[in-house]
Design brief:
The chain is α/β, with parallel strands linked by helices. The chain is built from six helices and nine strands.
């Protein structure tokens, strides 16, 4: 079912709000992703076809925080060039693809949703880049095999932020460069997050981002010793 969904979209044969479309990303038009016109309608169709509950298709949208990170990496390739990069909660793979295009030596996209892992593979192929994938929950670990860790739109929920932020802080304290992409959601409030750049945001993502006016990239400073 997954391959057919993406193959139909790649051929341009899919139509309707419950389908995917290969679409340029608003803030990073160098990148095209398989995105849904209406993710909620797509979600309902996928669940009906699967005959069971599925997680929300976050991978079928280009979220504001991920778009900011992607734009920043494409404009500042030295940040990841030649580095080992981990894209946490990768979703569509947008940030991972931007890192690969910016010259990262190895890019690993991590997500616990099997549908996201499939989407990352198809999106990477559509953009002619190579990306490794990881489907494990990394947040309980003490570290990561990376020089740079990126997290776009990973702080949208209180429970998730309560796990993501300590993990990212542990990495920053090990000397790993950590950057977060976020449009100023409620749970992105850690004092150690230092703004690097902001971009003006107009309606170009999922409906949940309609009220956003800007989206930012922030660097996580290590704990002072």
């Amino acid at each position: 079912m997954r391959r057919r969904l993406f193959d139909d979209a790649a051929r341009g044969g899919s139509r309707g709000a419950d389908q995917l479309h290969l679409t340029p990303v608003s803030l990073a038009r160098e990148i095209r992703l398989f995105l849904a016109e209406d993710p909620t309608v797509l979600w309902a169709r996928l669940e009906a076809a699967a005959g069971r509950r599925l997680p929300p298709p976050f991978w079928a949208s280009a979220w504001a925080g991920g778009q900011a990170l992607a734009r920043y990496l494409l404009d500042n390739p030295d940040v990841v060039a030649g580095q080992r990069v981990l894209d946490l909660a990768s979703g569509s793979g947008l940030v991972a693809i931007a890192a690969a295009k910016a010259g990262a030596a190895v890019v690993t996209a991590n997500d616990i949703d099997p549908w996201a892992i499939s989407a990352i593979g198809f999106n990477a192929a559509a953009n002619a880049v190579e990306i490794e994938t990881s489907d494990g929950d990394l947040l309980g670990g003490a570290g990561a095999d990376a020089d740079v860790v990126l997290a776009g739109d990973a702080l949208y929920d209180a429970d998730l932020a309560a796990r993501v932020l300590p993990f990212l802080c542990r990495l920053a304290d090990q000397g790993i460069d950590v950057m977060v992409g976020d449009p100023g959601r409620t749970y992105c409030t850690l004092e150690k997050l230092a703004p690097l750049v902001s971009y003006r945001w107009t309606r170009s993502g999922p409906a949940e981002d309609d009220l956003i006016t800007q989206t930012s990239v922030l660097a996580l400073r290590p704990t002072a010793r």
